[in-house]
Amino acid sequence: MEKWGIVFCPKGKNGKKEWQKFAQVLKAKKVDYDYVQSVDNTGVARFVSMMIDNNYKTIIIVGGDDDLNDAINTFMQKDLSIRQKVSLGVIPNGISNDFAKFWGIDGDNISETVDALIRCRTRKIDIGCIHYKIEKNGTLVACKRYFLNCVNIGLVAALANLRRQTRTFFFDYLGTDPLSYIFSTLLLGFQRLDYKMSLKINDEEIDGKIMTVCVSNARGYGQTPSAVPYNGKLDVSIVSNDGMTNFIEGAYMMYNKRFLNHKSVRPYRTDKVIFSKAKHALVSVDSRILSTPIGEFSIDIEQEVVNFIIP
User: Fold this and answer.
1) How big is the CA angle at 269 (ends 265 and 275), to the nearest 5 degrees?
2) Per-residue CA distances from 6 to 33, 59, 62, 87 (Å)
């Protein structure tokens, strides 16, 4: 077994103590590895790039969805010939671990997860990409950001933003995380529930007031339960605003994996979505808020571009 490169992304402030539970399992399994600890998203990108450049063939992220997102965006900056020789794996250790859950990777069973990583069974997976423009020093600059899970536009992106803000207080200062879910959900009562959007999916043009849009490469945190990251397609859910009661009902149906049956949800499958307008709507990529796009932006997919280690 070749030496792994591990990027550890702690959930709390005491990263050294947190790392010990992973280190003990790795030692028991006789895994040969080098590891670095990242304190922010720029660290993940820098360390992953360094490991690829130093010929590590197996790179493991001990972290959550946003940490995986930083790793994927670093992978996609490398030439295809280099990327094909490297495999990416994850040991879940984040607030959101949706992509790991899709594959049945259990964050509570580190030993089982490490065994799967040792077997190194890989699958080439699809990666979504959002293309957009931002203003920099008075000039429009073209940007792109890759994603494993989904892009949210509208209310769910606003919820993700609230979730991050409340977590800073409840987890970092009080040491409890569930309260941030509750508090951020309560704050939704002060958020707008619809946005003026214009978008094109396949040959259909949609224009009007929309609560939220989810464009997914995987399950999209329950909003696109039929999506898979290996069919070359994006799943899209468009949710209209039929009042707070229907919003609560939709949240309940999402929890019970019946989200697409809700009367306010319109599902699509496509290889590209073009937004000509999303007025005042926040945009999140794998649960992280994106710099507000200016003008038209689009979302598409690149097929089978990363080797991902699966159970």
Assistant:
1) 75
2) 7, 6, 7, 12
pTM score, whole prediction? 0.88
pLDDT in tens, 110-139: 999 999 999 999 999 999 999 999 998 889
pLDDT of the residue at 64: 93
The string of DSSP codes covering the chain is: -PPEEEEE--SSS-HHHHHHHHHHHHHHTT--EEEEE-SSHHHHHHHHHHHHHTT-SEEEEEE-HHHHHHHHHHHTTS-HHHHTT-EEEEEE-SS--HHHHHTT--TT-HHHHHHHHHHT-EEEEEEEEEEEEEEETTEEEEEEEEESSEEEEEHHHHHHHHHHHHHHHHTTTTS-SHHHHHHHHHHGGGS-S-EEEEEEETTEEEEEEESEEEEESS-GGGTSTT--TTSS-EEEEEE----HHHHHHHHHHHHTT-GGGSTTEEEEEESEEEEEEETT--EEETTEEPPPP-S-EEEEEEEEEEEEE--
Nearest to 11 by CA among 182, 176, 181: 176
CA nearest to 263, candidates 293, 238, 290, 235: 238
Distance from C-alpha of 99 to C-alpha of 228, rounded to nearest angstrom: 10
Strand partners, 300: 129, 272
What is the C-alpha to C-alpha distance for residues 125 and 305, in angstroms, rounded to an integer?
Answer: 6
The CA dihedral of 95, 117, 82, 126, to the nearest 10 degrees, is -60
Distance (Å, whole) CA 162 – CA 179: 12
Q: What angle do CA 217, 223, 225 make, to 5 degrees?
A: 70
What's the pLDDT tens digit per position in 215-261? 999 998 889 999 999 999 999 999 887 654 455 544 544 445 555 66
